[in-house]
Design goal:
Elements: H1 3-11, H2 25-32, E1 38-43, H3 48-57, E2 58-66, H4 80-86, E3 89-92, H5 100-112, E4 124-126, H6 131-140, E5 146-148
Parallel strand pairs: 1-2, 2-3, 4-5
């Protein structure tokens, strides 16, 4: 069940969780937006099928942001006429489009000031021997992220 993720998302401002386990996500998003689609859709899985859903779930003037990292062999197949005819913007974001050498120290500083709650995104800390189990729990939606400690 995606409930733990939903609870965390709702606590951070999400208003309408949608899961493909119980509904067609593109249809659900279009219904929630009066048929228009979302202004911004963030694909965080890195899979062609979820990117395609994000593409069709956005408003014609909306933006799809690919955050999930695909594997090298993955291919996306979209009718080029749909890309042209739907307008909007398609982009990727690596580390939030930041410059790690500049921005990571700033983010650490904000965290140390108590202005960013990084702990809220960590569900558990695990040992190296538990990594495989943690991936399974993450895949099932039981955890957001696990942090490996030695």
């Amino acid at each position: 069940s995606p409930a733990p993720r939903w609870d965390r998302a709702m606590a951070r401002g999400a208003t309408h969780p949608v899961t493909s386990r119980s509904t067609a996500p593109v249809d659900a998003i279009r219904e929630l937006t009066g048929g228009f689609g979302a202004d911004v859709v963030i694909e965080a899985v890195g899979r062609p099928e979820t990117y395609q859903q994000a593409f069709y779930a956005r408003d014609l003037a909306g933006t799809v942001v690919l955050v999930g990292v695909p594997t090298p062999e993955m291919k996306l197949e979209l009718p080029l006429l749909d890309v042209f005819g739907r307008g909007g913007a398609l982009k990727s974001s690596w580390y939030g489009d930041c410059l790690p050498s500049r921005d990571f120290p700033m983010l650490v500083d904000l965290h140390q000031q108590g202005r960013i709650d990084l702990a809220a995104f960590v569900t558990e800390t695990i040992g190296l021997g538990d990594v495989e189990k943690a991936f399974g729990r993450m895949h099932e939606g039981d955890v957001l992220r696990s942090v490996v400690v030695s």
